[in-house]
User: Fold this.
Amino acid sequence: MSQPTIESILQEQRLFSPPTDLAAQAEIKSLAEYEQLYAQAEADPQAFWAELAEKELEWFEKWDTVLDWQPPFAKWFVGGKLNITYNCLDRHLKTWRRNKAALIWEGEPGDSRTLTYAQLHREVCQAANVLKQLGVSKGDRVGIYMPMVPEAAIAMLACARIGAPHTVVFGGFSAEAVKDRLNDAEAKLVITADGGFRKDKAVPLKAAVDQALANNGAPSVQNVLVVQRTQADITMENGRDHWWHELIATASADCPPEPMDSEDMLFILYTSGTTGRPKGVVHTTGGYNLYTHMTCKWAFDLKDTDVYWCTADVGWITGHSYIVYGPLSNGATSLMYEGAPRTSNPGCFWDVVEKYGVNIFYTAPTAIRAFIKLGNQHPQARDLSSLRVLGTVGEPINPEAWIWYQQVIGGGQCPIIDTWWQTETGGFMITPLPGATPTKPGSATRPFPGILADVVDLDGNPVADNDGGYLVIRHPWPSMMRTVYGDDDRFRRTYWEHIPPKDGNYVYFAGDGVRRDEDGYFWIMGRVDDVINVSGHRLGTMEIESALVSHPAVAEAAVVGRPDDLKGEDVCAFVTLEHTHSPNDDLKTELKQHVVNEIGAIARPGEIRFADALPKTRSGKIIRRFLRNLASGEDIAGDASTMEDQSVLEKLRQGS
Ligand code: WTA
Assistant:
């Protein structure tokens, strides 16, 4: 099993048509219907989105202006007032969905819980009142550092209920990473848990929050709300720490939704970029609600009777948009699973599919590759016949994994929805629609209606079919990020200036390389910047380098991605040491652990290589291209004559 290479993808010719019976009942029933919608949206994007916003969402007050576009700053549905939790909860209570399952939760040890829309509404209102009681009001930021338990979704919705933007930090990040994010967002309160269950272990979380807050580490944080999950022995600091269950028990379930301006901030979510520290991606209320609603409805072909399962963690954008907001806005049943496939139960995902009769299943290529390795006997021993649509996200999917997913999990019956999108885009940008789009293994196919995706060169000129280029979006869309939190300038530089605007027409630069074939299908080739994608998780090479050089033994570090069969890419770090230290295996282990402490286990380098010196240009810039070649065992590609010291490469090669 390998990552897609340009050669393998170029040779990929297979075409899979949507199953006829599925298409007949789908929201969008044919390619012609998709093309008609696409053309309509392209001709008049504002009218297209305004009509859907009117039809699909409830607003407390209608907007005055559909789009205010002052490049690169967009405002959607300006003057409109709504609350996303009203659309996700209250409006369903007026219908038969009142007692429909909103969240089905399966804990790793086998415990489970189902919350109907009425029950979820009640708990969200209670939690919102607890937040108010602890001094949180509209506009205050709240950090959420949680395992995959229903309270994670409840906490997010409680924040949105009162207009307090949340910033969820993935539970796998370290105390240091939590601290950085809490400080950047200046969070007033943190919601966490004593721990969570993952791979048969109780993972501590509260301890990391304690560490982040120690010595006044995050001075904006006044209170910590703690959900009890693992019964771990934790310390509760008097006056600062409060048990969730104790405060909820006495909280009122009456909490009217705060009327939010369409452009009020809904959340900040940190993601890795090319330079410096992770950036706080800002999403606002109205456009995000509409776009996650529409993409969830059309790309999954969501039916009211479906059980829908997205295996992501709520700590990532996929969890935000497609476990919580998108499905609940549609009144769907969204399944949350706490655990991960593990040696003690390699078939646990398929147990969940069978137990709840899951109809729509959404996961990542890295998980699919892991399932392939675990063996077909696990899925084959379960009844997976309930599945209708299968989705994938996070990284390019290699055609072999695509075919396995389609055959072994989908029994050849389910369309594969390969969704290309990003934290910044808020929702799916390029994706098949299951009843409409014929699929090709390895291609995310065609853009969602209203998304004007294109392939250009660095000057912004269109490239010919099948020539590689940069993926850009030509028109603002409702759920686009609004800015980098507190740093408009970084927003502009990162996304809008790599490709110079032509005649004042700004294009959004996604940071991905792409090829478009003669059928208009997009084939994503991966990042073109210094971001690496490890198991579908985005990591900035600079972040890992800063973590390494903060260790006293390290003089310099350069991090590159190296192809990996399972993870897609793995972290490979080249390190030069201070003269006080000499290279040895213990130090390698120590440095790997140091990165885990600074960032989290997801960033642990797969390999550390010690070097006397790093390859640099005469102006002192590290030449990563050469390191990438070395890391993947390839020949050095390109001209090395710009290098300052030619012997460096020779030594690195010999040492590898
Ligand atoms: C990559 C995750 C190929 C891409 C939703 C993008 C993909 C980055 C796909 C965003 C896909 C995501 N095919 N590559 N279907 N989906 N990517 O912000 O490089 O964690 O830029 O958002 O993941 O990662 P992020």
